[in-house]
Amino acid sequence: MLNTALPHGLRGIRLWESRMKGVVLAGGTGSRLNPLTRVTNKHLLPIYDKPMVYYPIQTLVNAGIREILLVTGGKNAGEFLRLLGNGREFGLKHINYTYQEGEGGIAEALGLAEDFADGESICVVLGDNVIENNVRHAVENFKKQRRGAKILLKEVQDAERFGVAEIRGDRVTSIEEKPRKPKSNYAVIGIYLYDATVFQKIRRLKPSGRGELEITDVNNFYLEEGNLTYEILDGWWTDAGTFESLLRANNLVAETGANKLSSAEPTERVVSREVKG
After folding, report:
1. Sign of the alpha-carbon torsion through 151, 177, 253, 55
2. Is the bond preceding 35 in cis, omega lying within 30 degrees of 0?
3. Distance between CA atoms of 215 and 175, rounded to whole angstroms?
4. Which of 28, 98, 168, 200 has a 20 to 30 Å separation from 105 between CA atoms?
């Protein structure tokens, strides 16, 4: 239902909708997996018995999301269309595709989804993220929020590789991108839930020291507004962006399977302050 009381700059954005769209970010060069990525996109590499990109798409489908955009780039973008087609293998009628030129970071890639989102809320999954269970509960909880964002956290051993959330009691006080000395072991995993104001926030970003638009800065905008919630993911999670994590992902999927539909509900927390209507 459209909130007609929105300020002029936000008109056309639906801050409360039961409908949600999905975005899979599958660009980048995959340089940390060289030479495997010299001749193909990282997200087309196998994880056990499926191409890597199958797992984030299935994550969205298992959450009840049927409208999906794949953002990719590089020299092998056409291979995704050849592999995925219209998404029939996932029970979809259609998959949308768009192309990211260059390497501007996760937030820049997400910005390409603005026309696709068309004022709806979105669930964003990084293309190299694999989970044991599902995010249905997190998605349903997010639909109950009147605005804002939700991040998912997982305690890890190598937190310096990720965006890290500092937690005090039941609240997150800060999120840092790949800190040398992490303030906690809670990694912000590559699954994000956003309302449509995310694209306005992306336009406010400035490149980081790495020359990229950082998704952590987007999350911190929501944190500053008091419109961010989080949940701790149930079951294992891994990315597959290094040789070590790619091996771990293969072993975990082989041992237990992935994208299971039955799992315990995760613990929900509200960050900064209660999200108000």
Report:
1. positive
2. yes
3. 10
4. 168
- E strand map for 74-223: 96-100, 121-126, 130-131, 149-155, 163-168, 171-177, 186-194
Q: What is the pLDDT of residue 3?
A: 42
Distance CA 41, CA 178 (A): 23
Q: What is the pLDDT of residues 157-194, one digit of tens each?
A: 989 989 999 987 767 789 998 899 999 999 999 999 99
Give residue-wise pLDDT tens across range 200-217: 999 999 988 888 899 999
Would strands 96-100 and 121-126 be described as parallel, antiparallel, or unpaired? Answer: unpaired
Instruction: State residue 253 phi and psi, 5-degree precision.
Output: -65, -40
Q: In 3-state terms, the chain is what percent helix, strand and coil (to 5)? A: 30, 25, 45
Give the pairing of strands 68-73 and 20-26: parallel
Beta carbons within 8 Å of 201's beta carbon, 6+ residues apart: 218, 221, 222
DSSP code for 264: P
> Model confidence over 96-107: pLDDT tens digits?
999 998 778 899
The two tokens of residue 62 are 């298992």
Options 3.30.70.100, 3.90.550.10, 3.90.950.10, 3.30.450.40; CATH for 8-152+190-264 is 3.90.550.10
Q: For the chain, how far is it from start to end, CA to CA, in angstroms?
A: 13
Which amino acid, residue 21?
K
